[in-house]
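agent> fetching stored inputs for the aspartic acid docking request
agent> found them:
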Amino acid sequence: MNRSLLTIRHLDADTIHEMIDLAASFRTAIMRGETLRPKDPKVIGLLFFESSTRTRVSFEQATSYLGYRFTNFSSSGSSMSKGETLKDTILTLRSERLDGVVMRHRASGAPFLAHQLFDGHVVNAGDGEHEHPTQALGDALTVLSHLKSIQGLNVAIVGDVLHSRVARSNAWLFHKLGADVRLIGPRTLMPTHGGLLPGRIFHDLEPGIEDADVVMCLRLQKERMQDGLMTSTKEYRKMYQVNQETLRWARPGALVMHPGPLNRGVELDDFAADGPQSMILQQVENGIYVRMAALHWIFAQPQAKKAAKATEPPAEKTSKKKSSAGAKA
Ligand code: ASP
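agent> prediction call returned; pasting tokens
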């Protein structure tokens, strides 16, 4: 079976570092204006069954920078609107001679089906409430652009943990790389089986973000919420908003992150979103480089080594001990 990137949970720390290193190298290459010319360019299907701005565009950019081609697929306007199943759709796309697919779907696990039917070469671009691995890789690259190492950092993930695939992938990634992960949010928006996620659970913001080096805000995922999970947005804001005042509880200069799209004035205020500590736009840009790395990693298996060599970026290291993803995003 060929490689796919489906979760962070199933990756080991070395592989995570390998992908972040690769992404940092791609960033350097793009910054230098280098053009990558693969000998065996791939054609990637971008299958977004849920809306997306950042992830879709950055996969488009990533495939272009790699010298690959992409083709966009959207379920509306396809035979799915005539009742074709997901399975038959994937098999059809495979016969269209696509080399790989990037898939976002509201059903947790849908990219696993694609992985089986497509014989690998799948990137999970967010499946339901499960995982969003490239978001977490991009977030780690962003953190490593400012802080030497993830080992020993206090990482606070605040908000709607229950519905957030970003929270899941980030909790696993930062835990695997040695951070102290805290999950903060109301009881109704926290998974009951906290044990399924690494990290300590807090229901109050202050102790949760105390001394945090990184504060990640999550969007309230109203589209996945049953009525009544939150008393009111006003109360949520009062208890959990990351803002100029509440950020004082974190380490001075703590990095403020948000995967987007933002509910401005709810999860975070304008100071947190736009101020000097905000990493939000860097997260977006780094999303391109980690998506390049993910695609490259998938096709850089032994049988694809020759083709991959042509896109080999200059070496750059973000190893556990000493990280140098420090080049600016
Ligand atoms: N864009 C992220 C995702 O697709 C976060 C969000 O939608 O809140 O999961």
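agent> quick read of the result: The longest helix spans residues 280-299.
agent> awaiting further instructions
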